[in-house]
Please model this.
Amino acid sequence: MPVPEGKDLLPDPALPRPGATPDFGAADAEEAWIAVIRKMDETYAELVRQQVELEEKNVALEEAQGFIAGLLGSMTDVLVACDLTGRVEQVNLAAERVFGLRADALTGRPLADLLDPASPTTAADVLATMARRQRLADREFTLATPDGPQAVSVNGALRFDPRGRAVGVVLVGRPIGELRAAYEALARAHEHLKRTQQQLVHAEKMASLGRLVAGVAHELNNPISFVYGNAHALKRYAERLIAYLDHVHAGTDATALARARMELRIDRTLADIPSTLAGMLEGAERVRDIVADLRRFSSDRREARELFDLAGVARSAVDWVAKSQMPDLAIRMEVPEGLEVAGHPGHIHQVMMNLVQNAVDAMEGRPVRQLEITGERAEGPAGPQVALRVRDSGPGIPDEIADRIFDPFFTTKPVGKGTGLGLSICYRIAEEHDGFLEAANHPGGGAVISLVLPAAAPEGSRP
Model:
């Protein structure tokens, strides 16, 4: 295209001049704008993400606030939160009902305005407790309510901000009337339980006494019957001797006197008198021994301890319980003399009677009834000890109750035949004598209850 005359040819600004360096300013500006736009997109995305998180946190905060408001509203105890100066900052619905005012009317009021002037604990006491950084535990307050003074039991604790600084106190109170009613109900239940326990212990004592009386009566029956029979024989002998002496004192001639002597069997009477008297003496001595045992075993000298032989205790328990209740019982005793222990013989006798009684009860209705009592002296972890083992031919101890048979009030006997205290009392008595009871099943059948006690020192080594 021709160039008009008089006009200079102007270069195209978009084209580089010949021999000049190209200008990249426009490209850099475009790239800068693109970077800015990308950054704005990232910032917007971050703002959107933060907004979503903020909305989620707001929802969680609203739920937490609703949950806390629900807790405060469902509380039956009065809750009052105060600042460090003792001004009310928040109350719950129970407090509103007690004071007859809404929360906004209670907020900002001094704590002292909510308390009765005769309150045992004052607002000043609360502030002093906060100053000492202590807790309030079961302190009695008297609230000033529209219905008059109301006593409450209050627990309180300091309230801290997120930085761990004390900012106030939270007081929670429960009407003492409810607590007193609960305590009275608990006290009544406790007294009822104590009376029931005493009745059961008394029933167990009476059952033991019944077994003891039955056994003693059975043991006394034989010697007393023997003495009674011999006394009748002596009475007849005395009548014969008196009749013969009457003949002698009347001066009866020798022939008539000899005939009277024969008719009255004087010679046989004189021969029987020594053995009759010996039998009566033996029976009386047996009665004396039984009464002496009974007095010794029933004595209540709890503090006094004496040495006694377990063999005699075992024999007496068998005689007084087993023989009277199960006459056809096969009894085997292998208890050597000299198994001496220190303690209260009456208490150990009670243990043995109970163990024998349990063995007899376990064999009731069984085709084979065998009672085996063995004793031995051996070395234990704490020194010499003696053991008495009572084995029966009963069904044994089921595995599911093996660890419960010494528990108080546990029994497998039917109602009316056991209180569940016998073995528990025996276990305690054994522990009081520094010993123990243990139960197991014998490999040959039946149960074995072992009474293990520390052995007394040999006679030569006693001080």
User: Anything to note?
Assistant: Residues 236 and 269 are 9 Å apart (CA to CA). The two ends are 149 Å apart (CA to CA). Confidence is low (pLDDT under 50) at residues 1-16. The first helix runs from residue 25 to 74.
